Amino acid sequence: MTADGKGLVGHAGSVLLRKLADRIGLARGLAGVLPTSTAAGLPDRAAMLVQLAVTIALGARSLLEAEQLQLHHQGLFGPAVSDSTTHRVLAGLHGQTLTRIAKVRRRVPRHVWKLLRLRPGGFPWLTVAGRTLTGWIVVDLDATVITSASRKEGAAGTFKGTFGFHPLGGWCANTGESLAMELRPGNAGANTSRTTCGCWPPAWSRSPTPRSPSC
Q1: Which DSSP symbol is given to 212?
Q2: Is the pLDDT of residue 38 over 70?
Q3: What is the pTM of this model?
Q4: CA–CA separation, 67 vs 86, rounded Å?
Q5: Most Cβ neighbours (<10 Å): which of 93, 102, 168, 198?
Q6: What is the DSSP letter of 119?
């Protein structure tokens, strides 16, 4: 292994994330619902969204940071999309387009879970107190404090005495995947049914199960 050669690209794991999006049909599904254009110089919207998701997974906290990471990876994934172009594309996603994107996001996990059931070890059912909970899908709900150095939109004092945000997330305990995230101000509660119910329905709707959620 070397770190001083030519043509080297960091964050090698980004290749796996991009290939995963292609293999499970996410890129293809987005391409089928997003507007297309034949104008020269305009990026493929589906590829742009997938690559944006990859940069966020790598730690990008803004569209500018996402652009800088894409510049670093352009030898692998092609030319970077500028932050201004990304902003215009995101701002143009509304109405029926967002609804179609949501359908793709629900369909792709169902396909992945089907593949998990077909693998030799089967679907990862949880084991509690020595008992395997076959058929049970467990959703973990938890809130976390994210500090802010300035008065950004939604920032407020937190119960820990800091200043920032208090988002609530829902994760599938079986697979470890993030199902939903509710953005909330720093002074939002964490252990009440009223606050928890806001994240529960969207998290459950992302899990491939025929049962209806209850809260």
Answers
A1: P
A2: no
A3: 0.74
A4: 9
A5: 168
A6: S
Comparing C-alpha atoms, which of 101, 74, 106 is closest to residue 90? 101
Give the strand pairing for 168-172 and 139-143.
antiparallel
pLDDT in tens, 46-74: 889 999 999 998 889 899 999 999 988 88
Indicate the average pLDDT of the chain: 84
- What's the rounded Cα separation, in Å, for the pair 18 and 46? 12
Helix/strand number for the chain, H first, E second: 9, 8
Do 9 and 75 form a contact (C-beta atoms < 8 A)?
A: yes
Of 112, 98, 114, the C-alpha closest to 26 is 112
Token pair belonging to 45 = 């919207």
Report the sign of the C-alpha dihedral through residues 91, 94, 100, 105, in that order.
positive
Distance CA 12, CA 9 (A): 7
